[in-house]
Amino acid sequence: MHLTFNAEERAFEKEVRDFIAANLTPEMKRATALTPSVFSDPDIGMAWQRALHRKGWGAPGWPVEYGGPPWTPAQRWIFESESARAGVPNVNVMGVKMVGPVIIGFGTLEQKNYYLPRIIAGKDYWCQGYSEPGSGSDLASLKTRAVRDGDHYVINGTKIWTTHAHHANMMFALVRTNETERQQDGISFILIDMKSAGITTRPILTIGGDHEVNQVFFDDVRVPVTNRVGEEGKGWTYGKYLLEFERGAGIASAKLRDALKTIRDLAASEATGRAIDDPDIAMRMSEIEVDIDTLEMTELRVLSALQTGQNPGAVSSILKLRNSEIRQAVTRLGVDVIGHDGLYVEPMRPLYRLNGAPGIPEEMLPVVPEYLNGRAYTIFGGSSEIQRDIVAKMVLGL
Ligand SMILES: Cc1cc2nc3c(=O)[nH]c(=O)nc-3n(C[C@H](O)[C@H](O)[C@H](O)COP(=O)(O)OP(=O)(O)OC[C@H]3O[C@@H](n4cnc5c(N)ncnc54)[C@H](O)[C@@H]3O)c2cc1C
Fold first, then answer.
1. Same domain for 220 and 258?
2. Mutation test of ligand 1: which of 144, 160, 161, 213 has the most ligand atoms closer than 8 Å to its C-beta?
3. What is the mean pLDDT of residues 17-37?
4. 265 and 203 within one domain
5. Is 310 a member of any domain?
6. 3-state SS string over 164-179?
7. How far is the CA of 71 from the centre of ligand 1 (A)?
8. Alpha-carbon distance 18 to 9, whole Å?
């Protein structure tokens, strides 16, 4: 593996830096720094998506014929690293990184022509309708039913923990179209317009006081059959394919490095009484840094495979596992670094709309909310126990 960049790659690095400097407004940067979640609010995230689209960079990782940039793995890595370093907002990952690859892989020509340009241009905002009460890890037991009625499916049931359903105009969902002996066989993958009659969205507040997730109810919701992706009853295959992208198609190490740098800067500041001089804090910081280096190497190997047209495969479970655990270690360290200042928890959301003096320095404001919000990293996208199970079976062959 060559870890030094050639002249062309250096030039690309400068192009990315120049683009970010010209397009990332101070308001966007501040809003991102004060967002405790991995998800940016749509007004921030979609503004960034549109800026990327204008540059032709709206869908890193997609094949060129569908609008992806013609990057080498090294360029993709440079782009992600520079973006993380600069603190850019997160775009609608449910669109670009999740449903986009499924539509590319299994959608009809009409679906590709309609949805893909809208995802890249930041016109549609997607949410993911997989989990149900009682069907999370055991997703194949899902009960939301879609019954055929002419050219439509009529959907009844409920989805839960649906991130940003209250912002989304589109949902991709797994629904049961047939009762079959093997639960996985009767599931279909369907695209639902969130403005359809019969959909109700109920907010759920999480431990940090954030409204990100929801329960969504479907009462006789009519969805055209043409909104089904792929074959009826084969949705489990597409749904799992999507999960591999959800878990392993990003470069998390760059973001982790940036998050750790934020905590290191806090620890080196007088505001924390130079917490970095505490040997325990310094040692934990070094350990996390080594963990990030190791994750980065694995991500680079996966990235090379993705650029040659392969999907991430089961190794995505290793990436998801390590990313979420390292991320939690960073947020835990953050709380210890700010010490008793962590007792002040600002209740207002979003934090970036806060005007006037909060009870602690602004750079400390997101530390405890990030810690609390981050409890979910090892749950969403499949819990750590489930990832370990997949690694044992699919990677280690146990
Ligand atoms: C903040 C947040 C956002 C989310 N966003 C979305 C979203 O946008 N869309 C969506 O569809 N879902 C979303 N989810 C749901 C998420 O995917 C599920 O919470 C997750 O899959 C776990 O399912 P569960 O909550 O039903 O827990 P359960 O499956 O009931 O698991 C409970 C515990 O048992 C353990 N466990 C379960 N089965 C096994 C097993 N076979 N072996 C070992 N241990 C096991 C689990 O690891 C866990 O610790 C989100 C969840 C959270 C917390």
1. no
2. 161
3. 96
4. no
5. yes
6. CCCCCCEEEEEEECCC
7. 35
8. 14
Q: Which residues line ligand 1 (CB under 6 A)?
A: 127-131, 136-137, 161-163, 206, 213, 376, 379-380, 382-383, 385-386, 389
Structural domain boundaries enclosing 369: 250-395
pLDDT of residue 364: 94
Q: Could you say which of 80, 82, 212, 246 is catalytic? A: 246
* Phi-psi label, residue 383: left if phi above 0, alpha if psi -120 to 50, beta otherwise: beta
The β-bridge partners of 188 are: 175
DSSP sequence for 58-77 = S-TTS-GGGT-----HHHHH
Would residue 153 count as lying in a domain?
Answer: yes
Compute the distance between CA of residue 298 and CA of residue 287 in angstroms, rounded to an integer: 17
pLDDT at 218 over 80: yes
Please state whether 309 falls in left (phi above 0), alpha (psi between -120 and 50) or beta: left
Is there a single domain that holds both residue 73 and residue 172?
no
**Mean pLDDT of the chain, nearest integer:** 93
> Which whole-number Å values give the CA distances from 124 to 50, 152, 192, 239, 273, in the listed order?
11, 22, 12, 20, 46
Q: State pLDDT tens for residues 50-91.
A: 999 999 999 998 999 999 999 988 898 899 999 999 999 999
246 tagged catalytic: yes
